[in-house]
């Protein structure tokens, strides 16, 4: 059989050729060590469908799994508010995720492979849901640690899988596609499903909670005057305000919380089965267990992570990465309690977060196409403007009781911004560090988690307005760093184009 070639591009838009039995990507002028080796039979038309099928099933599994996790986590600051149990547990989750991202991903992936790592990591989340049946520090804290330790391998394996099959699709389609474009599109497709978890999780929680609380909620809200809500809620909310001051903050009935936890536990079992039986191993593309990152593990992955921190690109992208963690923590804890629960009622948190989930999924779905059409820089700039405008408006907004239109609008616009940031920054890591995918994505999760931990820690210490101003400051710093990287890449590309013309 004749040997064909496929044209690929590196970060500087240079072209090279690769044979069907060995496709390599370029980073600058250096050849990437990890190669995708595909047997000839893979070059059938149906291979594109198989690759997309795997991405869709991974997205579905994550959607079902995080339907349970997000649906539970969004209620923590309000349901488990006693002694800040809920926010402390969330801080423990993301704190252990920092350690997990440094020490565990490559070791676990070497042992089990990328596919099986994603499947088994789902199990680590299940005790967190089970502990909600008996919420105490001695049950939730250990369960939170397990979530964090499972999260590092899970997310690194997911990112590695998507980047690998994006490269495989580039080879299958040849001149018709580029790896960076395919990577953005695959992350966009994944986040469509992933962010829909917010919709289903909050739809389930709101349906269960409002089933019995509708009558009581109306009474409590009627006692919450406009003046009371305006003085205590929104950006003016400060730690220490409880149900004795604002009846909207009365926790739901324990029986309904247990029903909710039972539903969410079943969701996690279904997600595991879907991931385990529905996704193809990367062996299909010649990637064997332990070969994804040249045997990095434990301290070696820590060394690789630290080495990336010595690069200018990694340092400059850290602020925007931390902002993603900060804004997600603010949404999950501060927005749900300061705005929605305080002004509208705890049982209505899910309705506002449904708006967030729908907008987030739509934004993630369109982000890939918009990035390809408008360019990553333009899309990120537009997102930053909208994000800053939203934060500034919320900072000066006077909360009103039952102002569900505003609360849902805030959540929806927030969802649009978050969806764009997740797709653009996740894909950007894969483009910036093609030779160190696992170490690069470990850095992403590390600093995103660091931002989340900071957000959860300051949640019980600072007023909402102070945290909003902190978010605006970090966003501005992050945009400056991101913009400089894009400017440097574009300048380098123009330089190479001029050299080729000469």
Automatic annotation (TrEMBL):
Transmembrane recorded as keyword: yes
Pfam families: UNC-93 (PF05978)
Membrane topology value: Multi-pass membrane protein
Gene Ontology biological-process entries: regulation of muscle contraction; regulation of potassium ion transport
Transmembrane intervals: 51-72, 84-104, 111-134, 140-162, 183-201, 259-279, 315-333, 345-367, 379-399, 411-432, 468-485
Gene Ontology terms, MF aspect: potassium channel regulator activity
Gene Ontology terms: cellular component: plasma membrane; striated muscle dense body
Predominant place of localization: membrane
Location(s) in or outside the cell: Membrane
Superkingdom of origin: Eukaryota
Keywords, comma-separated and alphabetical: Membrane, Transmembrane, Transmembrane helix
Family: Belongs to the unc-93 family.
The protein's name: UNC93-like protein
Organism: Glossina fuscipes
Lineage: Eukaryota, Metazoa, Ecdysozoa, Arthropoda, Hexapoda
Name of the coding gene: LOC119636620
């Amino acid at each position: 059989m004749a040997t064909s070639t496929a044209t690929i591009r590196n970060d500087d838009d240079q072209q090279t050729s690769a044979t069907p039995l060995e496709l390599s990507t370029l980073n600058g002028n250096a050849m990437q060590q990890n190669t995708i080796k595909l047997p000839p039979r893979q070059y059938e038309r149906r291979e594109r469908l198989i690759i997309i099928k795997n991405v869709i099933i991974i997205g579905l599994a994550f959607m079902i799994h995080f339907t349970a996790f997000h649906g539970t986590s969004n209620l923590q600051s309000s349901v488990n508010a006693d002694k800040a149990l809920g926010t402390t547990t969330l801080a423990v989750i993301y704190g252990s995720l920092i350690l997990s991202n440094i020490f565990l991903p490559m070791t676990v992936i070497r042992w089990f492979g990328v596919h099986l790592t994603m499947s088994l990591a789902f199990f680590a989340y299940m005790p967190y849901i089970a502990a909600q049946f008996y919420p105490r520090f001695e049950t939730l804290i250990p369960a939170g640690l397990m979530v964090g330790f499972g999260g590092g391998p899970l997310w690194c394996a997911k990112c590695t899988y998507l980047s690998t099959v994006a490269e495989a699709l580039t080879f299958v389609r040849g001149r018709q596609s580029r790896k960076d474009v395919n990577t953005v599109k695959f992350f966009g497709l994944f986040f469509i499903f992933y962010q829909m978890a917010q919709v289903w999780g909050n739809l389930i929680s709101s349906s269960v909670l409002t089933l019995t609380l509708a009558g009581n909620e109306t009474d409590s809200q009627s006692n919450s005057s406009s003046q009371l809500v305006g003085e205590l809620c929104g950006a003016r909310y400060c730690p220490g305000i409880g149900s004795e001051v604002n009846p909207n903050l009365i926790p739901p009935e324990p029986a309904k919380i247990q029903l909710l936890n039972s539903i969410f536990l079943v969701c996690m079992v279904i997600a595991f089965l879907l991931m385990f039986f529905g996704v193809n191993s990367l062996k299909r593309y010649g990637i064997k267990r332990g070969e994804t990152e040249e045997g990095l593990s434990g301290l070696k992955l820590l060394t690789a992570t630290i080495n990336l921190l010595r690069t200018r690109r990694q340092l400059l992208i850290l602020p925007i990465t931390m902002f993603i963690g900060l804004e997600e923590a603010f949404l999950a804890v501060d927005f749900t309690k300061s705005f929605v629960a305080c002004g509208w009622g705890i049982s209505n948190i899910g309705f506002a977060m449904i708006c967030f989930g729908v907008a987030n999924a739509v934004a993630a779905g369109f982000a890939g196409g918009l990035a390809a059409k408008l360019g990553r820089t333009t899309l990120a700039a537009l997102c930053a403007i909208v994000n800053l405008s939203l934060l500034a408006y919320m900072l000066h907004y006077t909360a009103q009781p039952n102002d569900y239109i505003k609360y849902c609008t805030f959540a929806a616009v927030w969802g649009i911004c978050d969806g764009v940031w997740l797709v653009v920054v996740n894909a950007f890591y894969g483009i910036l560090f093609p030779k160190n995918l696992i170490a690069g994505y470990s850095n992403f999760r590390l600093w995103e988690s660091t931002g989340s931990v900071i957000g959860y820690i300051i949640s019980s210490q600072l007023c909402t307005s102070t945290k909003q101003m902190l978010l605006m400051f970090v966003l501005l710093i992050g945009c400056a760093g991101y913009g400089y990287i894009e400017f440097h890449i574009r300048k380098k590309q123009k330089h190479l184009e001029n050299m080729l013309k000469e």
